[in-house]
Amino acid sequence: MKEKYDDRLELQIFTTDSKEAEPYHFVRSSTNFLFEKELVPVGIVTDKDKAEESRIFVILNGER
User: Fold this and answer.
1) Exposed e or buried b for every residue in 18-52, given b needs 16+ CB within 10 A?
2) Which of 36, 62, 52 is nearest to 44 (CA)?
3) Number of structural domains, the chain?
4) Residues 6+ apart with CB under 8 A from 45
5) Does residue 15 sit in helix, strand or coil?
6) In 3-state terms, what secondary structure has residue 33?
7) Which domain holds residue 6?
8) How does pLDDT run across 19-61, given as a tens digit for each residue?
């Protein structure tokens, strides 16, 4: 992702108990992915085919 979308993607990683995660009320010890402050299901993020069909790639490719 970073290699392909370096100029359009900023990655930030926080723990679920961090101050940045507080507004989202994440389940402790869970994996969560946010894109433009919206929760994206882990099944989409971890599956290349589903991810490329998702709204994330549409936005990153400038097809909004």
Assistant:
1) eeeeeeeebeeeeeeeeeeeeebeeebbeeeeebe
2) 52
3) 1
4) 33, 51
5) coil
6) strand
7) 2-60
8) 988 888 777 667 778 877 788 888 887 887 887 777 766 666 6
